[in-house]
Amino acid sequence: MTTMLFSILTFLHIPHLQYLSNLLYCANQNRDNRACCSHLGMSNPELGVGDRCLRMCNIAPSGDRVNSVEKEDLVCLSNWNVIMYCARGGLRTIN
What we know:
The protein is mostly helical. Helices cover about 40% and strands about 0% of the residues.
């Protein structure tokens, strides 16, 4: 499982798992982007993982952490583009 997971993460250009929470925290900038992720289908019943993927859209001290990755998380990670889109969409520019 570990070799297969590493191969999938490499293919999807997702960083090493030990840094996943840190990367998501940095990308989300302490913002709760679950509404965006949900709107874009990350909690769609067709994914078959319930609201599990939404935790990757709310990495903050008051939010969730991704301390381990389970088989069900591969569905979430295969939608990495949605997670990053919502993270970028939640950022504010300083003029």
